[in-house]
Amino acid sequence: MAAAGSSTVQGTHFHPQHTLTAYHYSEASTYHCAACELVVTGVGYSCDGCGFDIHGECLRAFEAAGRISFSLHPAHALTLTCLAAAGGGHCCGVCERASPAGDYMYICEPCGYGVHPMCVVKVVSQQASQQRRGRGRRAMHTVGYTAHTVHRLVDLVITLAQVGACTIM
Question: Can you list the residues of the chain whose pLDDT is less than 50?
Answer without folding.
Answer: 3, 5, 137-151
